[in-house]
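I have a small job for you when you get a moment. Can you supply me with one protein entry, sequence and fold together? It will help me judge whether the discrete encoding reads sensibly. Write everything out right here, beneath this request:
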Amino acid sequence: MILLRILGLAIATGFCGSAALALRRAWRLESGSVGILVFLLLFTAIQSLVVLAAGLTGTLSFWPMTIVTGVGWALLQLRKPRTVVVFARPPDRTGLAILALGAAGLVSLIVKAFLVAPATGDALQYHLPKIAEWIQAGRFVWGINHDPRVWFSAGFELIENRRIVFLHHDRLIELGGIQMAILAAAAVYTLAESMDARPGLAAVAYLFLPAVILNATSCGNDLAVAAFTLAGYALVAAGAPRPLQAFPILLAIGVKATGAFAAVGILAFACFRDRPPKLPRPAAAALIAAGLLLAGFWYVRNLAVAGHPLYPFHGSHGEFAWMPQQGGVDLESLQQTIQVLPGRLLDKYPFESMGSRITGWGWAVLPLGLPALLLALREDRRCRQLALSFVLGAAVPLAFVW
């Protein structure tokens, strides 16, 4: 039976991958690292749409999803010409070393996903209980407990759910975070390549940040928002069409409302760049429609069921009985965060998944990243524009979110 369930998971994965490749080819977005990033974004969106449709129709179980994705995959195989994936060998030993280091990092994350159980409060209190209730009911279930946070956007839970619905076991639950780590590394690669930096080194350095490693296996949704936000910056830097630039922003909003605040930095960065080429109208309409569905579904649900699209965060303190929560703009909160940041650079506390007492930046940022940033800001106007956009994109969420 377990082999049959693994086969079902493989079929669903094959369908999502083939559909993403077919769309990327049809829209002529196959070039270089941008093509890889677009594939990862489309793959993530398609798997989310499949789970969303299954949850709404009461077919969130093994057989319906296996049959539907199997038929879809078979139909995609009839298309001609078939997509051929070619992997290029790194041109030198440095590239091989970076590739080997990145592969070792991914293997270590996968091993941790099998051996280390999620231990963060948010994941155990409202992320994972939602998935468990959905799997047991075979459909979406609202208001599973009295924690108001169960009404938060569940875009990341859609990504995690695809692996659980087939195996009916949570052994692979953390692979959703690893998928987001891969997406984030691909976005950093594309961004660095567009800025004429060393893309391979940048991607591997980001992948090995303590905050990324810990969040990849914690079943939290913060890394997903970061990955989609970085993808937005990368597509703007690469000069991708506007609908494609907006697509990861919409996916981020579907994961967490803070994605909308972080998008301010991406919009600012887009203002500095040249006008990009246009995407064919059908492709643009499909991207925006899918993005709006994945972004807006949870807020429309909250409006219909709980009475407010931003429930439980609305008004001055929201719906939290045990502690006040910021529900609006608070510049004093932003000021306090900025004042505390210099002291946090040298925190010596142990690493933990939530990172409540640490920056989580690690070896790549402090001894290498900060000095390199100062040099880049002095020498490259594009880096100054990107840095300003990043600061703005970070300041807006800190001003709105407690």
The chain has one domain: 2-400. Residues 2-400 form one domain. The mean pLDDT is 87. The two ends are 47 Å apart (CA to CA).
